[in-house]
Amino acid sequence: MDSNAKLVPSIWRVVAIAALCACLALGVLFLNKPAATEQPATDATATEAAGEDEGAKLSLVEGEDPLSLWTADAPLKKELVEYVEAVTDESSPDFIPAEDRIATFDIDGTLLNETDPNYFDYTLLVYRVTEDPDYKDQASDFEKSVAAKIIDQNENGTKYEELPVEHGQAVASAFKGMTIEQFYDYVHRFAETDMPSYTGMKRGESFYQPMVQVVQYLQANGFEVYGMSGTDRLIMRGLFSSHLCPIDLPLNHILGSDESLVGSEQGDEDGLDYTFSQDEQLVLGGDFLMKTLKENKCYIIQREIAKQPVLSFGNSSGDFAMDNYALSNPNYRSAAFQLCCDDLERENGNQKKADEMLAQCQEFGYVPVSMKNDWTTIYGDGVTYVGAEEELAEAA
Predict the structure, then answer these.
(1) pTM
(2) Among 57, 92, 170, 222, which residue carries the largest CB count within 10 Å?
């Protein structure tokens, strides 16, 4: 046989093997393709990742305003958009790598209604101790005294300096023995109750829709968002895991005050002397550990995030330490924003507190947010603050 004829199948075998190797190499390259460069919040690629959102959830359709519930001249809208564009632009001297884009938000009064008639966790304790048919007859004298102080504060404005810590202690003892899942379920059910001063809204729906947009805008631009609350973190995690919550945050991004957790069979044995078994669960241990306000917020941020924020959002002096921690970031451009509760018609605001906060923003360099002037809505259509009508009726 001609030697050239012998070569033909050999050549084709070589070509086939080479083609197969090329396909395998392309497949490996495709599987290991690096993530695409981050796109602005309005990019169409982000739309696919976001899925179908409802209500105040951020619309990522190209050309639409991601902060559409803010007025055009709102200081936060102007400054935040300019800031985000600068720190996400790799050619900008203000560029911040995605892993260092840390934004911390207070929760009560910053992301959702703060006091109707009091904090979410305060009203939860009052319900547990005075109304819950499965517990009220078992409540301790201490728990009842704390609930009485909260009720007095609600009705008469009485101030109790010891109440924040006492409340934490009473929550820890009143829910002692519950598993984390049982506690979340309890919070979920309480979140389904109606807001006392509003029509068309449940407690778990009382999120400020313009602030929901801010969170989603930052998330769409590569920021890691953390909730940093003075409320018990387990209560807040219960609230954020409710189907009513419009903000999507991993529960380990919800930080706050601490209570003990123990093994369900541990009893009074110290944790250093006890080994958790495969047949038990973690339960609430009944001891209050820390109230996460003021400087304690900085401590918790460093302990659990291990990075200094570049953005901070709050609404009270209890958030100033967190704001200052962000503003003192030595490596990156940073900013801090504070809400002023100046809307007395759509929200149970307080003009005196709002004026004080505005003055403090000017003094310390925080960007003020006017709930009255900067937001086109607070809770969306179908929600009415009836407290304003009641106040006018009383005044008449």
Answers:
(1) 0.83
(2) 170
